[in-house]
Amino acid sequence: MHFLEWNNTLAAHFFNSRHSGKDIFLFITKPEIINLAKKNFNGESDQEIWNDYLRKIRNGLPGSNSFPFIFDKAVHAYQQWNRAGLKSIEGFELKYPPYIGHLVFAVLPLIEIQGDYYATNYYDRLEDFLEENNIQQNLRNKLKEIDILWADLSIWSNKTKGGELGCFRELRFTHETRKFVYKPFSQCVLTPKAIKKLPDFFFASGLTPNTFYQDEVFRHHLSRKGIEILGLKPSTIEIIRKPEDEIGNSILETVRSEFNEWTGEEHEIILKEGVEKIIRKNTVVPVKLQFKINEDSEVDFSFRVNYATEPPPGLKLGEFDDIYENDKWSRTIRKQFTGSIFELRDIANKWIAKFEFRNIRLFVRGHYFLLSNDFWIEIESLLRAEEMFLLCRNEINASIIAWGEESCVMFKDCSSYPNIPSGYSLFRFKNPRHSHPEYQQLRVYKDKTISVRSGTGLKIGYRIYLNELPPEVEVSNSDGSERVYLQYEGETQRKYLTQHPTLGGIWLLPDNLIPNSSFVIQIENEFIEGIRQTYKVDEPQLKELSVEALPKRNKFNSPTDEADQLIQGNKILLSGFNPNSIDRMSFEPNIKADIYQEPFKFSEGLLVKWLVAVKECDILKYNEAFETIFHNTFEEGQHDVLTKRKFSIYILDNLGFVDFDEATKKIFSLPPKLIFIPSSEGRKVMLTGLRSEKLVNEMIDYCLNSNGKISLAVKNQNEQNRKMLIPDSIILSSNNRKEFADIANRFQLEFDEWFLLKQKAFLPTLFQYEQHTMSRGTAEAYERNQLETKAFRRENLKFEFAENFDKNYSLVEFRPTFITEYGLWINQSYYSIREKNWGKYLFINHVSKKEKGYGNGVLFSRPQEIFYNSNSIAVPASLPLPKLIARLMMQLSGEAPEFKQLNLKEINVWYNVYRNVPSLFTQNFFRFVLNMNIESTTLAI
Asked: What CATH number is given for 449-539 in this structure?
């Protein structure tokens, strides 16, 4: 391999889009280096590959012959990197700083050379590493020559690349003789393996996430459990125990940084069918104290659970259930505050909510957390620009009073307020200027950082936000007097931000930001710690959407390479397809329609704009965006957000706006296209996929000028579905197919006439799906991993915890992580199943009574669950249709089903009611696809 091939391979391992925003450490082992490069060699041994890496490092970048030593050659690589206009060397692109391979080399002796060395002994390890690898160079005391490289890599990753490939931090040390060797040490004292195990370490240490702990708490637990859980060396523990040791403090900083990101989950990694699987064992979350103060100054205490990972469905903590308010906070939990510690547990879901003992508790208004301002809610650190409360034990109140009166602009003793528990004092204060000499929680930090306020803005990329809803800006450690401005890169003009009307330390971005232009946010006349971060706002670009990058799948939702039968987002390839005349009748009635275009202006919702802009995301990003938009859209009806959010993505998928891959939890935004839908008169097409205000309004203008040949209407979703942010449907009407072709051509849209009938033909039958599931072979159930099993029950169509179930035919559910997995037991053998809804219909088909069908031996199941009346079908909400069938049913009308309670079988049941389903093929569709006879009813659906 060429020198730059080696460098780029190593650099891409550390710096890539998967690591955006994450801290990067140049830790890599010899076997990992070899494995990274194997694809570029043809059968060479591991040792030969390793020797090639060392040889290229010794020889350095082409043109470095006059630089005798390895670290000198690193400096030459740095100099070439900083040459203006140099983009490649000997045909190899300079994608990354060309000295990264040398920095990796500088760290390797600390990873590969083990032995009885003093904890911070670098150069003896380096000499042994050189000798072991037959490198005849004297590199002692030469690290200072490459010191500038650490700083340059930090600037490149954080400023030039904006952290989008990862954030490398140059740690600066002050020790006169060790400050150079500390830098390679800082990359490897905590190994990647140890960092991955930190969540287990935090849980085993009894820590609670989003809780303030003194440094000594972390030192204590690292000393006790660092060797056993993290695999730290005894010499590393000795370093950690010394508060004055800079390497020890850098380890502590990394541990605290990881702790601040910890969601409270404890994991176990198992090997299942040759693949590593993560099993979520436990989740711990903090309980925060809160209170209201009424007009009589009476204090009313209560609690909230604060979580960083989504609560499981049906979470019940102690006697409290239905607690979800938003993606960070529970609803108010009514429980008396006495100062005692307590835990709330959900044994089935393995959640523990802990309220810990604290000498000091700080409170800020609820609006700071985007909650009701009626509450004062517990927070972990001081805010200088916000009015706060402090609750403390009486044993320390004299010390708190002395600090408050000396340090704070305003300090008031509120301990006489009614309902303050015995043994506690309450103080109200603002703008502390000095730290408390004893309590780290009351430390006043003067160094300021600028960041985006959590829960604000619609993020569409790394530090890129949707122009329609930009984020708010937070200045940590603000005193409220700052003048904050933004400045576009390459410009000198400043745009000043407006302070938040009710919150200190928060600023609002100006209107009319320039799309896709990088800007920095700064404080006038103040130095901001660290590298300046760039931000952007951008607008959605509909033309950038395509299905070509989406996975290709067959009718069983499995990856496929077939070119003539596949589904890819909202594209279906089906060779030889020809719609039969019976199916076409519902789309081509003989009655002409009156065509008239109403003049109106179309306005699109934020969710569609965000989906167009983001193009592709995972379910966690979608959840965050949904809640931000929901809370910005609706002032009332903020309850049950979790359920609305959960079902919204399935409806968006089935209506053809997005493609949601439930197995990977990936969401792909789909481009617009026109498709025929059933009509009672004339012809109708629906604009499926995503769209823009500009596109729809231009189509309206086109129709207004068509002389009554074509019209466009907006079909509103019902109020229930609008609360799930489901967009309205765009329906075009005409009496002539050519009009649809013309408008599609005018706006460069695909016109896929028989898309819905292709979907129908593409569907597998229930029997085919069962055979496909079994043909993939048996799998390992999770029972041996002590995961609770839920079995699907015929009586109530729900999954319930079960110790015993019929393994001759059962559908079961496991939750190894937040991603649920499903399986079928058939004749005592276990098969994993990709889509639970197919599994539900297989199970229902198996256990329901049978009726004779057409032909010899043909039997249909009759579960007496699904009902139809004219063009409407009622499907039990707990028996949802498989994905491709639900897509077909919804896109026949472009309308999300109505969720309503009906009494169709002498009991009230919740149903999803689908409209505009042609009665001509309703019965036969269910018979020949789901092997089921459904029930007709004269009752209104």
From this structure: 2.60.40
122 vs 102, 109, 128, 143, 902, CA distance in Å?
A: 16, 8, 10, 10, 75
Q: Which long-range contacts (CB under 8 A, 24 or more apart) does 878-883 make?
A: 878/796, 878/797, 878/798, 878/910, 879/797, 879/840, 879/841, 879/844, 880/650, 880/837, 880/840, 880/912, 881/837, 882/835, 882/837, 882/838, 882/841, 883/557, 883/653, 883/654, 883/662, 883/835, 883/837
What type of residue is 388?
M
> Which stretches of 815-907 are assigned E, i.e. beta strand?
821-826, 829-833, 850-852, 859-861, 867-869, 872-876, 898-903
For 428-462, the pLDDT digits (tens) are 999 999 999 999 899 998 888 899 999 899 999 98
Domain segments of the chain as ranges: 3-188, 190-262, 272-438, 449-539, 574-753, 766-847, 850-936
What does the alpha-carbon distance between residue 296 and residue 419 come to, in Å, rounded to a whole number?
11
Q: Which tokens is 304 given? A: 């909230």
Q: How far apart are CA 760 and CA 744, in angstroms?
A: 24
The 10s digit of each residue's pLDDT in 804-862 is: 899 999 999 987 665 678 999 999 999 999 899 999 999 999 999 999 877 677 889 99
CA angle 920, 926, 930 (to 5 degrees): 160
Interatomic CA distance for residues 831 and 810, integer angstroms: 10
| Spatial distance between the Cα atoms of 464 and 506, rounded to a whole number of angstroms | 19
Which whole-number Å values give the CA distances from 440 to 246, 359, 698, in the listed order? 19, 12, 61
- The mean pLDDT of the chain is 91
| CB of 688 closer than 8 Å to CB of 570 | yes
How far the first Cα of the chain sits from its last, in Å, is 70
Q: What are phi and psi of 47, to 5 degrees?
A: -65, -35
Per the listing, tokens 């896929």 go with: 752
Q: Give tens-digit pLDDT for 846-880.
A: 999 999 877 677 889 999 999 999 889 999 999 99
Q: For residues 211 and 329, give the distance between their C-alpha atoms in angstroms, rounded to a whole number.
A: 15
- Return d(Cα 801, Cα 453) in angstroms, integer: 41
Position 699 pLDDT exceeds 70: yes
- pTM greater than the 0.85 cutoff: yes
SS3 899: strand
520 pLDDT band (50/70/90 cuts)?
Answer: very high
Helix (H) or strand (E) holding 107: helix 100-112
**The pLDDT value given to residue 31:** 93
Assess whether pLDDT exceeds 60 at residue 515. yes
Give the chain's radius of gyration (CA, Å): 32
pLDDT of amino acid 548: 92
CA dist 390 and 832 (Å) reads: 53
Task: Report, as an integer, the average pLDDT of 393-410.
Answer: 96
188-200: average pLDDT:
86
**Residues 505, 511, 512, 514, Cα dihedral to 10°:** 10
Residue 396 to residue 625: CA distance in whole angstroms: 44
Q: Strands of 489-564 (E only): list them.
A: 495-496, 498-499, 506-508, 519-523, 534-538
DSSP 174-189: --TTTTTTHHHHHTTS
Beta-bridge mates of residue 485: 496, 522
Nearest to 562 by CA among 550, 549, 575: 575
